[in-house]
Amino acid sequence: MKRTVWILLGFILFALLSVTIYMYFYSKPSAFLNDDELLKKINSTHTTAKAVRIQDTISVDDFHYFVPFQSKTGGHGTSYWEWKKNKWQVLMIDTVGQPLLWKVEGKTPSTYRIVWNLHPDDKVNSSHYYLTRERGYFITGDQENYFPKVEMVKKITHGKQSYGVVKLSKEWVSVIDSLIKMESVKQTNFYDHFTLSRFMYLGWTPYDRSGNEVIIEHSVNGNGYHVDDIDLEFVRYMDGIELEQSGGK
Description:
Layout: H1 2-26, H2 35-45, E1 51-54, E2 58-61, E3 64-71, E4 76-84, E5 87-94, E6 100-103, E7 112-117, E8 126-133, E9 136-140, E10 143-147, E11 150-157, E12 163-167, H3 170-186, E13 201-207, E14 224-226, E15 232-234, E16 236-237, H4 240-246
Parallel strand pairs: 13-16
Antiparallel strand pairs: 1-3, 2-3, 3-4, 4-5, 5-14, 6-7, 6-15, 7-12, 8-11, 8-13, 9-10
């Protein structure tokens, strides 16, 4: 009789433990935080952010949000959120609003997003984003390798919003995915360390309403505070000289 009771108790404990683990790691996200909760979390985590207004809450997918905000000093910042361990957690808070590439799932280029929150004083009306690779040639043993030049452009009009989140086009995803697959054959640990800038780079050029190139000043001053693991990649500024030389403008 006692043995049966112990077996039953063991089964119950195992079931409770299994449910707890599932809820902790695999539960579906609850409703996202409201503005007051976001401001409280941002300011308690990054005390110099001085956030006073949440501009928007943008769902990247069911488990990730991009939240742009304004600070007490008039700055425009960004924050990155993930449903993790059964709660919404902030991954990074940045008081700089220049474009970055958020690789939400590093192995899956279709999840990559270009994100930004540009300061209005920079007067950016539109941006051109470039996915670029220079021609290359090298020899590995008896094998010759040649890489043709790649330059793909995506044009974005900002309108009145200072912030935004943009998916990569199918063509860009296809090119990046081909790099991952090609290099994964050579390196067994490549998936865990993929950096786009090792093979190509993502660049951008901002323009004002008259179509003149803008020199960014207000959107690059600030600092970031990393809270948890997040894969962000710098978007390189490309000036007119570079574009004229490459034929990209």
